[in-house]
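Practice set, problem 2.
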Amino acid sequence: MLSKVKIKEIRALEIKKFRDEQGLFVAEGNKLVSHLLKSFICERLVALPKWLSTHDGLRIKDVIEADENELKKISFLKTPQDVLAVFQKPCYALEDTHPESQLILALDNIQDPGNLGTIIRLSCWFGIEHIVCSPDTTDAFSPKVVQASMGALAHVNIHYANLMAYLSKYALHPIYGTFIHGENIYQSPLSQQGIIVMGNEGSGISPEIEVLVNRRLHIPSYPTDRLTIGSLNVATATAIVCSEFRRFCISSIGYHSGKSDDT
């Protein structure tokens, strides 16, 4: 039975203040919850009987069997799923980021939850283990971002920090950013160490962060003389940038798929 008190507690996690105070976040849906259960501590799980019948041996403090109407009351989705879980938020140390030996993604005031969720998925796909976000970047553990990240939160460490202070610490290392005026990314040598900064959806990289970027890149449209839109969506731009960095790595040092020649 899902009590009114527990409904209120779960619904409160839509608000960042309560997520921070309690150190909790919500995920919904069979695939997403099943994925996150392998990586995060689950405090509470609410599910339909049919879901619970196929998931025995759950090591969770509070497992609640609910009906569809009860799930509707706590769901943050237009169409509630069979299961909703409340997880403990992970805590990562900023000192564990090492841009001198790997690529780090830095986000400057990203506001759209869908964009942030997509960027987290992209980071997971392209093997970027750490994302450092400015304090004004939207919360990576909001319900909308968690859903959009599709489980990638289990593989990417999200940090919130003073971005100016963080970048200044690594000023002698490559710090990349994308701009209207920059070096063509398809013709530029790209390092596999350093920091890639992606800026706000409307205004791009902020002026105070821009001065810390020492490698300015540009994603050209095609053909270059064709009249086109003013800019790319930040998640789309991130996909292009990450793909190009990894392509450059593959073309520079070669790539081994892990499969033997006779498979």
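Problem 2, part (b): a different protein.
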Amino acid sequence: MSPGYEAPKSVRAQYDLAGRVCLITGGAGFLGQQFAEALGEMGALPILFDINQEQLNKTAGQVTAAGSQCETEVADVSDEQSMVDAVQRVLARHGHIDVLINNAALTKYGCDSDPEKFFASFENTSRAVWDAGLRINLTGVMLACKIVGPVMARQGRGSIINLGSDVGVISPDQRIYERDDEAGYPGVPFNTPVFYSVSKAGVIHLTRHLAALWASSGVRVNCFSPAGVYRDHDQAFVKKLVERIPMGRMGAVNEYKGAIVFLASDASSFMTGHNLVMDGGRTIW
């Protein structure tokens, strides 16, 4: 019996993204830029969605400087109408959407609360921080999928990539942040807020739900769960963290680009509902 799908024989052809329109929420951020550069290199048109036009312009300039075309849209993932309007503008220009990467997430810089509230202990969790985290990290992903998924279903094809996290799979080890006098470790003034791990676990299961819902429509929905990327972190903190990672290091800049291209392209054409974890082995312990 025929499988009903003919995979390109050439591996290069499987990874080719020429002509594909790729939306990236949280596109003005560090990972958004990384993903845009990767997709653009493979021939796609990345369109960055974010709330700040100035930051979007800066990131888009860096993407184009790396050799790729790039477009931007001001949109708030937690505002359904804002997302509907932005998606309609993209469709008016291009007529199709092939890839959606749900990368937007709440950080201390995007939160109305001060850092002390953002990184408060669970017992002192701010309801405002909790609500904002779920609204952006989980509801924002749901809304983007709700708006773009049906577009892809009508097309008969599409790839949705939701950003999870290693701490959406395992519990964050809060000991890596705490002071350890015996080891001479002073501790650091941050932690993994409860909303983050809970929302990322929700994203992973939302991915499975939508994968089953849209599989027959040719829409693949997968999750990508990375660990932290080293970017001049406190060395004492890094030492404490990598003790819990079998490979003994954090992720490197540019190290996640290949995974995103794989999930976006026909190289993963028979994969849906999967959570691809890249964490140096942290979740196997």
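Answer key, part (b): The first strand starts at residue 21 and ends at 25. The beta strands are 21-25, 45-50, 71-74, 99-102, 158-163, 219-226, 275-278.
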